[in-house]
Design a protein that fits this description.
This protein has 390 residues and is an alpha+beta fold. Helix content is 32%, strand content 13%. The chain folds into 2 domains: 218 residues, DD-peptidase/beta-lactamase superfamily (Beta-lactamase); 119 residues, Beta-lactamase, CATH 3.40.710.10. The chain contains 12 helices and 11 strands. Strand 10 and strand 11 form a beta hairpin. Helix 1 runs antiparallel to helix 12, helix 2 runs parallel beside helix 6 and helix 2 crosses helix 7. The longest helix has 15 residues. It is globular. The two termini are 28 Å apart.
């Protein structure tokens, strides 16, 4: 299978990396594509701030043409978007406009009623608010998700319904601060916090204070027409979004969702842009001459914030889950990355992994065939990448 090479800054040997491992990585992804487990892959790996591996292989789209996945192809980074939202929260903390222990009720009045009045900003950042987690975390049969409550309320009250109250009406699944439960709705609420504190939509704040200063030219909430032309997708709903951008027809009907910033998963990007964002974190909040955060904020985001908090999502049996203020700190025994690394995954799938001890960042997409989760495309690929360190 042809591998398309992207722009690099140096040879692998220049940063003490074994180039043969890139061949192994390409072969691994090619095998998964041949087995129809993934549709395509795109990756960008850097060390000491220099990109030494950048490539792609496979198909851009799951149907329609034979266009190849390119190194600069656009893909939805899904939940990796949460790391941008977390950075936005920390910027507001640095500016004295917010504190991590602020009660969300002091910012969003819908939280004033018990038991929500005990939820703090840091609970939302660390997925310990007690709010109902994403539907895939547990095998729910009867519980209606926050998203379904919002949709029902819209039918009753129209597009200007109070979506925060509607989403909270499902209640808590666990007491505040007692269990780690992956909750994308919590990060949508963090977007509402950013909007309320900054005085502008959260998407605009993130775009103007993070994306543009870092010169992430191929990164945005949603897609521009140019991005849509280069968009990779493996599921129908993204195909429809791309088609609506490239072939606009009738005006889209107004919806309550127009008032909700998708700060939990709405960013599209490329492997290289995502790697650049990771290098900002690796640089203690700075990249080139641009300052996004201070060193202490990065330390706070990438240090375990939990103590003896269990995690039973997706069948996990962790009794002491590690998580930072927006980044995952889980360090499994089967992982070749250095203890102290931090990361985030995105459904569909993609990953951003940052290893300060090795001064290395890897960002990649591995579009699951039909969207069905393929953990080996993330975890096994990560081990191959880290195996090349000399």
């Amino acid at each position: 299978m042809d591998v398309i090479s992207g722009r690099t800054d140096c040879r692998p040997a220049d940063v003490d990396y074994d180039a043969s491992r890139i061949d192994v990585l390409n072969g691994f992804f090619a095998g998964m594509i041949a087995d129809k487990k993934i549709q395509s892959a795109s990756y960008c790996i850097s060390r000491r701030g220099k990109v030494f591996a950048h490539g792609s292989l496979g198909a851009l789209r799951f149907r329609g043409d034979d266009a190849p996945m390119l190194p600069d192809s656009i893909f939805r980074i899904a939940s990796v978007s949460k790391t941008f939202t977390a950075v936005a929260i920390m910027k507001l903390v640095e500016d004295g406009l917010l504190r991590l222990d602020s009660n969300v009720a002091d910012i969003l009045p819908q939280f004033e009623a018990p038991p929500f009045d005990r939820i703090k900003v840091w609970h939302l950042l660390t997925h310990t608010s007690g709010l109902h987690p994403d539907s895939g975390c547990f095998n729910y049969k009867y519980v209606v998700s926050p998203w379904e409550h919002i949709a029902r309320k819209e039918k009753e009250d129209g597009i200007n319904t109070d979506w925060i109250s509607a989403g909270l009406s499902v209640g808590l699944r666990r007491d505040v601060g007692t269990e780690w439960q992956y909750c994308s709705f919590g990060y949508i609420l963090l977007g509402a916090v950013v909007s309320a504190v900054a005085g502008v939509p959260a998407t605009d704040y993130i775009r103007n204070s993070i994306i543009k200063p870092l010169n992430l030219a191929d990164t945005d909430f949603g897609m521009t027409p140019d991005m849509a032309l280069r968009a990779a997708y493996n599921v129908e709903h993204i195909e429809r979004e791309v088609h609506s951008i490239l072939h606009p027809g009738k005006v889209k009907e107004a919806s309550v969702w127009d008032h909700i910033d998708d700060t939990g998963g709405g960013i599209y990007s490329t492997a290289r842009d995502l790697n650049r964002f990771g290098n900002m974190m690796l640089g203690n909040g700075r990249l080139d001459s641009v300052r996004i955060l201070g060193r202490k904020s990065v330390e706070k985001m990438t240090t375990n914030a939990l103590q003896h908090i269990p995690d039973h999502c997706w069948g996990h049996e962790y009794e002491d889950r590690w998580y930072g203020m927006g980044f995952d700190m889980l360090s499994a025994n089967d992982c070749l990355t250095t203890p102290g690394h931090y990361f985030h995954e995105g459904a569909g799938g993609c990953a951003l992994v940052i290893d300060p001890a090795e001064d290395m960042v890897a960002a990649w997409s591995a579009l699951y065939t039909g969207g069905a989760f393929q953990g080996t495309a993330l975890y096994n690929a990560q081990n191959i990448m880290w195996s090349g360190l000399n």
